[in-house]
Amino acid sequence: MTETYEMTETYEVIVIGGGAAGLSAALVLGRSRRRTLVVDAGEPRNAPAAHMQGFLTRDGMPPAEFLAIGREEIERYGVELVRDRVVEVAEGFAVTLASGRVLRARRLVVATGLKDELPEVPGVAERFGKDVLHCPYCHGWEVRDQAFGVLATSPLSVHQALMVSQWSKDVTFFLHEVAEADLAADDLRRLAAAGVEVVPGEVAELVVTDDRLTAVRLKDGTAHAREVVFTAPRAVPRSGLLERLGAELAETPFGAYPVVDATGQTSVPGVWAAGNAVGFGEQVINAAAGGYRAGAAINGDLLMADLDTAAGV
């Protein structure tokens, strides 16, 4: 049976999601002496990666270590963290957790991120974060000058093939289920100018030998020796809570994301969003910055609301 909790726990801010964005917002709010709770389901998007790059002073740090340090930092300022999942947010920001616990908040930060759906090609999911990658800025330096493959997931994958040619001059673009006729003539010319070989035909599997990617095999049986494969997962925003709250969403080529202002405030009064909850391309350093902006904006919003109440404005 589900336990029943009395609705007695009230926070000034509840942060939904304990990744870089959520922890950064919580850090600012904790330092601002706001009673803050972080609810984290423990499913970070970058969990498959052995390291993260491009975060000044934290370049090369394992993601799990980064989050562990962040949790320690927010704890210093009295921020609470619970390992749970938010299943519903009702009127008045009554937040119900999967455990049955019910909480109230004056303001919300939604930092639930997104989920990556990988191509259903044998070997892709198993090697993701190792030698199957998606972001050259995250991993390009570490695999530079190796034999790259790019597994197309849509005609937009041309951009990925062109980008990774910055890190290797040996790039093969596997069209997979994309027809060559669907590629723009200008894109084909750019691929040729970058020295990218275009290979039509559906990919059957990735070949792994001694725990290393060694080739990409097509359905016709031909194999192309490759050491690294880049592919663009389908981004699935975790925007269910925002939808149910009535937040305005905008369609993008990477899914529907909330419309937010410069601080991350959504169209719903009292609700902010940050990190990959607001866009596909938010790297860890961007997510942390977005969380910081949201936290500072929320503190100011609460301060002005309380002063207006006291002043009878």
Automatic annotation (TrEMBL):
<dbReference type="InterPro" id="IPR023753">
    <property type="entry name" value="FAD/NAD-binding_dom"/>
</dbReference>
<keyword id="KW-0560">Oxidoreductase</keyword>
<dbReference type="Pfam" id="PF07992">
    <property type="entry name" value="Pyr_redox_2"/>
</dbReference>
<keyword id="KW-0812">Transmembrane</keyword>
<keyword id="KW-0285">Flavoprotein</keyword>
<protein>
    <submittedName>
        <fullName>Alkyl hydroperoxide reductase subunit F</fullName>
        <ecNumber>1.8.1.-</ecNumber>
    </submittedName>
</protein>
<keyword id="KW-1133">Transmembrane helix</keyword>
<dbReference type="InterPro" id="IPR050097">
    <property type="entry name" value="Ferredoxin-NADP_redctase_2"/>
</dbReference>
<dbReference type="GO" id="GO:0004791">
    <property type="term" value="F:thioredoxin-disulfide reductase (NADPH) activity"/>
</dbReference>
<feature type="domain" description="FAD/NAD(P)-binding">
    <location>
        <begin position="11"/>
        <end position="290"/>
    </location>
</feature>
<feature type="transmembrane region" description="Helical">
    <location>
        <begin position="13"/>
        <end position="30"/>
    </location>
</feature>
<dbReference type="InterPro" id="IPR036188">
    <property type="entry name" value="FAD/NAD-bd_sf"/>
</dbReference>
<keyword id="KW-0472">Membrane</keyword>
